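Handout, tutorial session.
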Amino acid sequence: MTATGDVVRLLPDRTSSTGTHEQFIIKLSSGDLTVEVEHNISIAPRVPVALGDHVVVHGEYVWNAQGGLIHFTHHDPQGTHEGGYIQDNGKTYD
């Protein structure tokens, strides 16, 4: 999925078996909904997002009771998954 929105909250990095993930929440442009973004910085560069930044996020959406999350916002080194990206301040991070 591809979503656009404004960064409304920055979260601490989270480390899991798949790597370290930069996390933040965006308020979608299409309505009053929020979604968490989990970007694997063990695979792709950190996105220097700041509160209020307008971003475009492309990745895999996973529903949860808090509004869901978007992950796989980076290239897939194994080539088994569609690559994603985050656009922030005119630059694409994948």
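The second record follows below. Compare its token runs with those of the first.
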Amino acid sequence: MDPEIEDRVTTFGELGLVPELLAAVQDAGYTEPTPIQRDAIPRVLQGRDIIGLAQTGTGKTAAFTLPIVQRLLGGPRRTRVLVLTPTRELAAQVEASFVKYARHAAVSVIPVYGGVPIEPQERALRAGVDVVVATPGRLLDHLERQNVCFDALEFLVLDEADRMLDMGFAPQLNRIVEQLPRYRQTLLFSATMPAEVEALSRKYLRKPVVVQVGRRSEAASTVTHAVYPVPRERKSALLIELLRNDQMDSVLIFTRTKHGADRVVRHLDRAGIAAIALHADKSQSQRTRALESFKSGAARILVATDIAQRGLDVSGISHVINYDVPQQPEDYVHRIGRTGRAAQTGDAFTFMSADEIAMVRTIERMLGQPIPRISVPGYDFGTVAAA
């Protein structure tokens, strides 16, 4: 599609989607494509390999699920699509996207990830399925058991590629891709584009089209940022004071460690503030229940490790609080991308102890602008030290 024409596209019908997909989009309540959808969907339909760079919350998942479902229509029932994701939560989100957009089409999908029994997945894979959405580790288990065959694969999607590499999945990705057909359409989506992801794209993609929305490390423009200077030992007390504000409708709190998440939940509980924890030590059923409670509004506060910085698609998160400053500046972008989604507004607060000042400055350099400081009397480590 010509770039000038792309700029004038205002409806999904202008992107070349067939009636079955347009009906599904309408059922989902969407009226016009986001920039990443407008740019990516026609090129996927044309059969091009794509590198998609976009902030979280921009509609990236639909940018590849919609055209892939259309390309599957009327084809044979065999495994033609593999989507690789870094986390179970993201795999479940992508599966839900395929189910939503294939509701008027005969397309089947199965999520494949660890933390749940392998036998039901084995039976479903052996029975035949169009789309497999998987985390690398569990997929390798199935490949070793010969539960799935990718001889007819047409599409490979690497979703959140930067996060997969951050989590050390490069060896598993190589082992998986070695077992896939060379002639396929490959789509790589990433919020950032470090050198490792560029190397991955050169290895796996053929003459890809780069579709980029915003700068590579740009934070969501709909989010208001603030840094709260506070001694480490006073962070919980400051958090409790902020959470007593009635405007904090739905709050996602990030901690650096699993034990830290549990500790924050205990502190909030003692203060009479209900919260639930989400981290890798939780069973899959516990993680699913926690997410469902948060999505439904039954739980107002979710305390999580970086397992939730990608793939947590919850509308209406009013505040993201970095209880611990992220050690990688890119992780700041991913964390705060949980609020201000789909053009809504949100607030991102970061608690900064004295030993975290350098990390905050690194984040500010990446953003290209300073983050305003908010000094709360009795909590700012400058005023506490003076007292």
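Points raised in discussion: The domain at 3-213 is CATH 3.40.50.300 (Rossmann fold).
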